[in-house]
Write a structure and sequence with these properties.
Elements: E1 19-26, E2 29-43, E3 48-54, E4 58-63, E5 66-70, H1 75-88, E6 94-99, H2 104-109, E7 117-122, H3 125-134, H4 136-139, E8 148-152, H5 155-160, E9 168-172, H6 186-194, E10 202-206, H7 214-225, E11 230-238, E12 243-251, H8 261-270, H9 281-286, H10 292-299
Parallel strand pairs: 6-7, 6-9, 7-8, 9-10
Antiparallel strand pairs: 1-2, 2-3, 3-4, 4-5, 10-12, 11-12
Length: about 325
């Protein structure tokens, strides 16, 4: 039986000034952390930005009062969003990053010497400006790499305008509601597929939590499977999102589940990549193992998300 830890009085004089930040993962469940102070705050055409200082996560970027990226442990998200695809693709040269205005995805992509060009399509230019100035520990100067071409544009429209160009497309968007929801539909995934240079193209996206948002997770998987031949979810706990999360790789020709651990380790070594916190040959394999309850979720009835019906069954707003 689990023992309960007796709470202790916090004698830290800052405690009375701390803000307890609570974030809902669904209308019935969420998490909290304490904020010492707001470092910067602003508003763009699309959303509210706030940079806060915390003891648990270090500096945290909030968009519309939702945790987007935390300085501490952020590789736990950015590494699996990038490295599985790059270790599975035979020669990733041209890359499209949709969203990801903090620059963490760019940082990991640029570790690969095979990469010749990265188009970065971000709708909200001020997120990039804000991140360049205040999240240097996350992007580590990646915006200044000559291979990066920042495009202030709607991700869907930009992808549609560039058929047959990319080896890997990574989408790091906010959750599927509001302006982002049209990037989670079958029609958009077909646009992504047409943007691949060849049948080895790989698409990567975060695909919600099978714990906190099982219906959204299931709908995303079903929608992806209606477009791509190989759909491979990876599962891992991400502290800044406080729950088991999923990241999914999609391709017509490449099956990520068939890549051996030794092959992954050789690719990382060849690319000169070391000291990763999350990703290795062994974790490439282990993160694809489904708990039985997740298998049961995926067997349930779920609908394909379309442009005509883009709203998800889960309520994302508490």
């Amino acid at each position: 039986m689990q023992k309960h830890i007796r709470s202790r009085v916090n004698k830290d004089p800052r405690s009375s000034r701390r803000r307890v930040f609570k974030e809902a993962l669904n209308p019935n469940f969420g998490f909290y952390y304490t904020i010492n102070k707001t470092l910067q705050k602003g508003k763009t055409k699309y959303q509210q930005l706030e940079l806060v200082d915390t003891d648990e996560f270090g500096t945290v970027l909030l968009l519309d009062n939702i945790t987007q990226v935390a300085e501490r442990n952020e590789p736990h998200y950015h590494e699996p969003m990038v490295h599985p695809a790059f270790c599975c693709h035979p020669n990733p040269r041209n890359v499209l990053v949709i969203g990801g205005g903090d620059g963490g995805i760019l940082r990991e992509v640029l570790k690969y010497p095979s990469v010749k060009r990265v188009d970065h399509a971000e709708l909200d230019e001020k997120v990039i400006t804000f991140s360049k100035k205040y999240l240097k520990s996350v992007h580590k100067g990646s915006f200044d790499d000559p291979r990066v071409h920042v495009q202030v544009a709607d991700g869907r429209a930009f992808t549609k305008q560039h058929p047959g160009e990319y080896d890997i497309i990574i989408m790091d968007m906010t959750d599927p509601y509001g302006p982002s929801k049209m990037l989670y539909t079958r029609e958009f995934f077909r646009i992504v597929k047409r943007a691949f240079r060849d049948s080895n193209g790989i698409f990567v996206m975060h695909s919600e939590s099978p714990v906190a948002r099982p219906e959204a997770f299931s709908c995303i998987q079903k929608t992806l499977r209606s477009v791509f031949k190989n759909v491979n979810p990876f599962y891992l706990y991400i502290q800044m999102y406080a729950v088991l999360w999923s990241i999914t790789l999609c391709s017509d020709n490449i099956d990520a589940s068939g890549i051996k651990a030794q092959t992954i380790d050789k690719k990382l070594k060849k690319s000169g990549i070391e000291n990763l916190e999350i990703y290795s040959g062994q974790t490439h394999v282990s993160m694809q193992v489904q708990f039985p309850y997740i298998s049961q979720i995926l067997k349930r009835s779920a609908r394909i998300i379309t442009d005509a019906k883009p709203d998800f069954p889960d309520n994302f707003i508490s």
